[in-house]
Amino acid sequence: MMGASRLEQTDALFRKNLVIQRRACKTNCCLILFPLLLCSVIGGLQILVNHASSHDVPTHFDCSCSNVTIDENAMGGMDCASDCPLPRAPKWPPLLRLPQPKYRAVQDGLFPSFTDLPDASCRATWSCPATFLVTGGNQSFVGSVTDSMFIAQSSSVNLSVDIAPLSDFVLADDFTFLQNKCFPGLALFYPVQLGNEIVSEEARCAEGLMLWRDSSWTINDEIYRGSYQGNNEKKTDEIAAAYDFLSSDQANFNLIISYNSSNNYDEYLESEYPVPLYDQAGSVQKPHSVQVARLSNMASNAYLNLRGNDLKMSFDFVKEMPRAARHLGPIDISPLIGKLPFVWTMELLFPVILSNIVYEKQKKLRIMMKMHGLGDLPYWTISYCYFLLLSLLYVLSFMLFGSVLGLRFFRQNSYGVQFVLYFSYMNLQISFAFLVATCFSSVRTATVTGYFYIFVSGLLSEVLFRSYVEDISLSRSWIAVMELLPAFSLYRIVYELSQSTWAGSYMVSSGIRWIDLNDPENGLAGVLTIMVIEWCVFLLFTFYLDHFGSFQNGIRKVAALVYSCINGNHFQAAQQNIQLQEFGASVEMERADVIKERETVEQISKESNRSYSVICSKLKKVYHGKDGNANKTAVREISLCMSRGQCFGILGPNGAGKTTLVNLLTGFSKPTSGTAYIEGMDIRLNMDKIYTGIGVCPQDDLLWENLTGREHLMFYGRLKRLKGAALAEAIEQSLRSMHLIAGGIADKLVGKYSGGMKRRLSVAISLIGDPKVVYMDEPSSGLDPASRKNLWTAVKSAKQDRTIILTTHSMEEAEVLCDRIGIIANGSLQCIGSSKELKQRYGGSSVLTVTTPAGEEEEEVEMLVQSILPAARRVYRVSGTQRFELPKQGMKISEVFQAMEQAKSRLHILAWGLADVTLEDVFVRVAKECDMPTAT
């Protein structure tokens, strides 16, 4: 037998899957477009955020100050817009941050014990001094220091020519300078460069009031009670700063500074405080302040001045660090919504792939294709390619919609890097789904488990794995171990891409690039390596489990093979002894025809040229008990042979082992011992080759609901190497023989077929492609009488030059179709032969049926039959109808007829008949004689 090549099998499966997926186009499109839903939701939120923040985000910045050269003798210009490039930063004087005049500390009831605070009337003229509290171990020394903190100036100062003395003045961020005492008209003018123009800016005088307190505890309490509480209507009293000089004296200088780090001072309107504010790029800009450094410098300079050595600690300017242009635009919300939506979206295909694989397993479509010649490699290749194509479209959809909707998560990272990472993960996800599918036989269970996995793994990634990634004290090796779970690998990818986007929220050049894959900080190279290795390992495990069924079976088979190679002769001799002992124990209970069949099988097994198509040699199947239950023997040492051109019928009660025997011959299950040869090939070793030349009509209709009858035959015909005109002719012939032509039945979806139509299609599939051996497991079940007759005609015409193995419960069907019949009960072959031989051999009686009016004549009829043949036995009596078994030995048919004709004259015999035993009678008799539990 020569089956289709792997390329032909792949082509057939590809064409079949293409038709199925074309019909499922809407479902696939919805699946591929699902990322659009996520991206649309995020994009909609982004649009709302953009709209809400559009009034606060300037559309244009004046970046002319970025390239201004600051002269050493001139004050640098105003602060550039925060998003402009700053290749050469301007200089700023170190400014002191002061409370707003209306919130400066005064006598208003909060501090009744401190009478040295200014009167509250100063708030009306915005002239309240900035209060500084001081304490220390040496009050006189502290007073000398604080008296020297501010330069005494009685007239205005103009620094338009030389601004070096500017560092001597204590400038505040509200464009004032501090002195112990201010005089009318006292001001400080200094140059400011705006663009290419230098203008003179005025700083007004503000008084700085130094007040002594006895302890730092007192200072702390006063500052706390006067702190700003966030309510503009409340008259709060804020202290500018506080000094604790500790044990300072002329020889030692120790200092603790208390300062306010709040940025709430600018929450007032220009109309409330007539100080010039500089407006650039549509927003108010203020000079920078260096609070602690300036407070410390004030005390240090005062201490040096007190020492009288003409020492001076100048604090001239501060400047920003040069920077590149910062990103201008609205806030990107994609990093803010977290990683989970992206992770769950990418994982969504896992339960889809898993349920598809388990569906073909649950419906036994995979084994049906395999029994018609489809190899494992073409099946897994086409399945993998389909899911890979689906995954690629899904990833491209994910990236495309995210980019079109403006999500920086997609736009800012390199598209090439994203594609490689996602492509690698999708390959890993497919192989992982293939591996997990070997553990399930129910689509519902697999689907629920798949969705539960993506939900739980996503939560664990966010709650558990993320904390480990961000914990720099944890070894990266443990992170790599955790990334062995595919969900964690995906989360790490999304996390790093998101982090790079978040880190680059202000910078133009950011995101993950190819060069960043080698960065050990993000670990993406390690994740990529782990995914590739796991992808290969999962595929290998999948093929292993698909072939052996479980790890234990594979190990057991390898161990048995090794053991047989080492101790081959001893092992074979032991097996033969065991089989001889079992054979000897069973021969005593076997009938002569069964023994003869076994001897024929043994004789055939010794011949090199076998003319029999199917040979079963001591075939046995034992199902091992679980949970303490005993083992069940479904098939017991069955030996039989079937020649070409013959239909062999297998009869037996429910649970007798008929279907189990067919499953063994078709490779659906493996024999416990013994073997069978199909066209000379051993079912234990050459099942893949056997599949190329057999046809199977299983007990259940294993069909695709979304394929037509013609498409089913086309697919299985291609697996039998039929092409072109030969394929079309074979399909038409099969459809005509099964009466599936009329009314366009052949081109309707199988999901719309009736049970009888599906059964006829299953028979047609088993016969297409001229298989040498055909298995039909109850082919006429569910058919009406007319369809059953048509099926019998097709089967009788199809058995020429091929072997048909048929199981049935219909004795009529067995008599019409089967050349030889074997009756199985409790897993054992009870008798074998043609229908006529079985009737003669096991039907040693005739059946006499007599019908009279119900009443006393029934007893007279029984006495009449006993007078004809004393060995007669009544087996049936209902409402005047009686049936008697008449042993053929000692019975003469003429005497029966003569006696019955004579009895008509004195008895009211309505009807009578004498018939030979039927096959049904033989079946019932054999089943009753086998008084033991039936096999499963």
TrEMBL record:
Keywords: ATP-binding, Membrane, Nucleotide-binding, Transmembrane, Transmembrane helix, Transport. It comes from the Eukaryota. Coiled coil: none annotated. Belongs to the ABC transporter superfamily. ABCA family. CPR flippase (TC 3.A.1.211) subfamily. It comes from Paspalum notatum var. saurae. SUPFAM superfamilies: P-loop containing nucleoside triphosphate hydrolases. The lineage of its organism: Eukaryota, Viridiplantae, Streptophyta, Embryophyta, Tracheophyta. The chain crosses the membrane at residues 30-49, 342-359, 379-402, 422-443, 523-545. GO terms for cellular component: membrane. The keyword Transport applies. It is a multi-pass membrane protein. This is ABC transporter domain-containing protein. InterPro entries: AAA+_ATPase (IPR003593), ABC2_TM (IPR013525), ABC_transporter-like_ATP-bd (IPR003439), ABC_transporter-like_CS (IPR017871), ABCA (IPR026082), P-loop_NTPase (IPR027417).
